[in-house]
Amino acid sequence: MLEERMGDCWSRTKDQFDNLEKHTQWGIEFVEKYTKFVKERSEIETNYAKQIRNLSKKYQPKKNSKEEEESKYTFCRAFLTTLNELNDYAGQHEVISEDLTSHIITELTRYLQELKTERKSHFHDGRKAQQHIESSWKQLEASKKRFERECKEAERAQQYFEKMDADINVTKADVEKARQQAQMRHQMANDSKSEYAAYLQKFNQEQNEHYYTVIPNIFQKLQDMEEKRIERISVCMKKFADVDRQVLPIVGKCLDGMTNAAESIEPKADSKQVVESFKSGFEPPGDVEFEDYGQAMKRTVSETSLSNTKESKEKPGGKTKGKLWPFIKNKNKITLNSHVRNLIEGSVPEDFSHLPPEQRRKKLQGKIDELSKDIQKEMDQRDALTKMKDVYIKNPQMGDPASVDPRLTEIGQNIEKLQSEVQKFEGWLAEVEERMPSKSDSQRKSGLYETQNSTTVSNNCAQDRESPDGSYTEEQNSEVQVKAQPIPTPTTTTEFDDEFDDEEVLPTIGTCKALYPFEGHNEGTISVAEGELLYVIEEDKGDGWTRVRRNEDEEGYVPTSYVEVFLETNAKGQW
C-alpha cells in the first residue's frame, strides 16, 4: 500500500511538471509569434516608406528641364512643397520601422533566449529533485528488503540450533556450530535493522523537504517566469502603440505643410506670370483704310496696317501678304523665315532677333548683366593683383613685382573685350527699345545713356538682377552701365565708390516675414533667419526674387517663396 501511495504522489508530481512544461512552451511560442508579427509590421512600414520616397523622387522636377522652368508658378511650387513634405512623411514611417526593430524586435529576441534558458534550468532542477527522491526511495526499499531477509535467515538459524540442541545423536561440536551460526544471523539482522532505520529517517526528511520546499520553490520560479513573460508582452504592446503616437506630431506638421502649400497657390499671380513670359511687345495693327475700287487710283495702305509694304514694292501688282498675328492661321502656305530656320538648325542669332521685342529686350539685358558681372570679376582680380604688386614693391623679399605684370595685362585685355561686347549688346538693346512703346523707351534711355563718358560697374549688378533660372527682372533704375572706355586705374575706385554712395535710397513699400532661413551666399542677396521681419523696397517682378532691407546699410534680394509679403495699399500702384 505504501508503494502504491508513493507511486501515485510521484505520478501526480510528474503530471504537474508535464502540464507546466506544455504551458510554458506555449508561452514561448506566443512570444515568438508576437515578435514575428511586429517584424512583419516593421517590414510593411519600411516598404511603404520606400514606395513613398520613390513616388516623391519620381515627380521631383529635374534639372535643366521644362519642369524646372515651370517652378516659377505658385501651383508648381506648391506641388514641389507637397513632394518634399511627402518625403518627410515617408521618413516618419522609417522612424516607426526603426523604433519597432530596436525597442521591440531586438528586445524580444534577446528575452526569448533568456526565457528559454531559464525555463530549461527550472525543469532541469525539477527533474533532478524528482530523480533524487526516487533514488532515496529505492535505497530505502533495498534496505527494507535486506532487513526482512536477514530476519528470516536469523529465525531459520535459531530454529536449526534448537533442533540440533534437542537431538541427542548430534555431536556437541555440531551443536556449537549451529549456535554460532544463529548468533551471527541475529547480529546481521540487527545491523540490517539499524541500516533500515537510518535510511527510513533520511528518506522521510528528504521527502518532507522535496514536497514542502524543493518542488514549491521550483513551481514558484516557474510562476515568476510566466508573470515576467506576460508583463514583457504587455510592455511591448504598449511600446507598439507609443511608436506610432510619437511620430503623430511630425506627421501632422507634414500634412499642415501640404495644406499651407495648397493655400499659397495664387491663380492671378500665375496668370500674370504667363502674360509676362509670353508678352511679345508687338503694337496692335491700325485700322484698315477703305479701298475705293470705283476710282482708278492706287491702293493705299497705312504704315500701321496688317499689309507688308516691303513685299508690295518687291512684287508690284501682286497680292499683299498680311502679318500673321495671334490666333490667325495661314491655311494656304507655311513659310520659314531666316530666324525660324536658324532655330531649327540649332543656331540662335547673337542679337536674339528671332524673339518678340519684349522677350528680346529681356534676353539682351540679361546678357548685358552677365557680361557686367564678368567685368566686375576681372576688375576685382585686377585690384587684388595691384595690391599684391604694391606689397611686392614695398617688400621685395616677398616677391618680384614684375611677375604680376603679365597677368595684369591679360586682365586688362579681357576687360576691353568684355566692354566691347557690352557696348555691342547695349546698341541692340537701344534699337529694341526705340521700337517699343514710349513709356518703356523713356525708362530705358534714362538709365542707359546717362553716363556716356565714364565707366561705372555696380557691385550688385548681375547677381541682383538675375533669378536662378537666368530670367531678368524689369527693374529700370539700377541697371549696370558699362561703356567701352580706357581701363581705369586703381585710383578711380574711390571715385566710383563715391558715385555709388550717392545712389537714391528706395522707399519702403511694405513688410515681409521670413518663412524659411536663407543663407544668401551669392552677391546681391541677403541672408535671413526664419521668422525675421524685414522691409520690402522692391516687389517681385516675376523672376522669383524680392528686394528687402534690414536696416539703412543692409539690403538685398531674397527668394519670394521664402517670405510672406505684406504690401502697403498705397504702394502697389507705384510698381
Explain how this protein is built.
- Residues 137-181, 361-388 form a coiled coil.
- This is Formin binding protein 1.
- Residues 300-324, 433-495 are annotated as: Disordered.
- By secondary structure, the chain is mostly helical.
- Among the domains are: 10-270, Up-down Bundle (Substrate Binding Domain Of Dnak, Chain:A, Domain 2); 352-434; 510-567, SH3 Domains (SH3 type barrels, Roll), CATH 2.30.30.
- 63% of the residues lie in helices and 5% in strands.
- It has a 5-stranded antiparallel β-sheet with strand order 4-3-2-1-5, with no helix packed on it.
- Helix 1 packs antiparallel against helix 3 (74-166).
- The model is unreliable at 297-345, 438-503 and 571-575 (pLDDT under 50).
Question: Care to give the gist of this entry?
Answer:
63% of the residues lie in helices and 5% in strands. By secondary structure, it is mostly helical.
For the secondary structure, the number of strands is 5
pLDDT < 50 runs, ≥5 residues = 297-345, 438-503, 571-575
Roughly how much helix do the residues carry, as a percent range?
55-70%
> Which descriptor suits the 3D outline?
rod-shaped
CATH superfamily of the domain at 10-270: Arfaptin homology (AH) domain/BAR domain
Mean pLDDT: 76
Order of helices and strands: HHHHHHHHHHHHEEEEE
Could you state the oligomeric state of the chains shown? single chain
